[in-house]
Amino acid sequence: MLTFLDAWERRLAQRIRKVFQASGVAYWAHRLTSQTILPERIFRWPVIRLRRLSLYWVLMLLVGLAAGGSATGFLWGQPEAFPVGDAYVHFTYARNLALLGEFTFNPGVSEGIGTSSLLWVLVLAAFQWGGVAPLLAGRISGVFLLVLSGFLAFDLLAAVLPVGRDGPRLLVAFLGALLVVLPGNFVWMALSGMETMLFVALALLALNLYVRERWVALGVTIGLLGLTRTEGAALGGVILLVEWLRRRRVGSWTWRLVVPILLIVLPWLLFLQFREGVPVQTSFFGKQVVYAEARKVVGEWNPLVAWLLEFPPLLYTLSWMGYAFLYMTGSVMLPGFRIRVTGPLAREQYSFPVVAFSVVVLGLLFFGTLVVRSLWKRRAAFRWQRPAHRLLAVALIWTLIHNLLYAFLLGIPGSAGRYAPMNHLLLWWTLLAGVLLLRRNWARALALVFTFGLVAVSLAYWGQVYRANLKYMSTVHIPAARYIDQNLPPQALIGATDLGPLRYYARQPIADMFGFVNKELLAYRAAGKNYSQYLRDKDIQFLLASVSFNRDGDQIASFAKQMGVYEDPNLRLVEVASFEVPFDEWLFGSAPVSNYLPAMVILRVEVAE
Asked: Of 192, 198, 498, 606, which is least surrounded by CB within 10 A?
């Protein structure tokens, strides 16, 4: 395959150079850098590369175009919304920080911290200070970070791939970078309004800096990674471990790495400790509340699932495997004979293509086995002194630790998706590594077709998921928030099981009924008090709850019912308005991202005298 790539590179470069020489770009690049205010020596390196038109920059440009094209395909003609409500939580914190100078969810109210990413909030707040609203800032930042991640992946692979000749090495790096910017799951994460792609970009930048041993810059990057998501700081510990195994001693590199991490991350952790009493965000405990409520519903649906819920690490592992095989690759949308499984809401009919799914699973397992066997056979050749070997060790150990942290601390369904983005990289790059390990050219060609066929399926599937998510948000969440803003009393306290769009669009004060922001609710639950008592004590006048209706219009699932408020004889809930998306459309978009329930109702809370 390397011979084929080398010949392809020569033909491509020859054609491009002819066009480039005829365009006059090199002439104007020389004039603009040698005869303007700034001397040529300042731009010597990029100008030399531009004049030569090296394959490196041509492929880098193609990576950027692929990233921009995939993002544009998702955004084209879509409404001004984001696919998950959690994004609006970040937007709310950013807006309040920029406009009011408060790090709060409800303006003027000191509560818990419901955002999981300080750095992402600061990025969005910086846009808001510059007059760019978070909705636009989230899109601009997401597309930019997708492109940047592709660039960083290409540069990293080009630096460490064990391929002798420049042309084949750059082309393999190019394929690896495409597997960052083209799969639909990465594009969805970039456009989700969440911090996920910022995490990926900083992680790839950190690995680039580690290969080049830029210790201070690496420490700063890992510190920022820890502000993006706290568990990102674990990368610093992994690098310290690997470097100690390499050097068997500490040195100046240690302090140049550790001190920037501590200077950046420690103030944030101290702030959390001072404000929350623990060095983690309140949203961590809110997720435990959601998990506890979900267990009640899911546990009654299937005894096996109820048993799995008692073992979070096992549940996390199995949910990750199912997510990777079905949704990350998009194989769930492939045609063929399908089996159907009824979900916990009774109306849910999850269907899986048996043949297509089996082919995808076998293919992934085959390539994964090839890679593992190759690594095992070459274990004796492993050397800590080789940058590529150290990088591989760091990436694998960090990915393992990252997954163990979630498996034992937040092993709930859904955390195997956007919260573990390095797993996405691992899957797609394992496929590429498996392709390169095949010996026969025809087998490599078929394997490459299989890999990028999955990429195309993934892109098509996640594009449809993205559109379904936006329709759900535009039909249910955002209209419910706007209704509350325009039709309910301005000072009415609204209890809600979904926060982001409500707080972003409505002016009324919001009481979080899951504890993502609301520490008082967590205290109530810890004291054994029920939700009904909380509604009465806080004088909550309206409740926004996610529900699911059957075909006759009766509720078959409702977070309000899960709270037990309907059972309280001293409370009466009167439906004021409801918003719903067709069940099948909700199910298609919700399956890979867990978008709550297909409908929302606004209830007036009446307390008996």
From this structure: 606
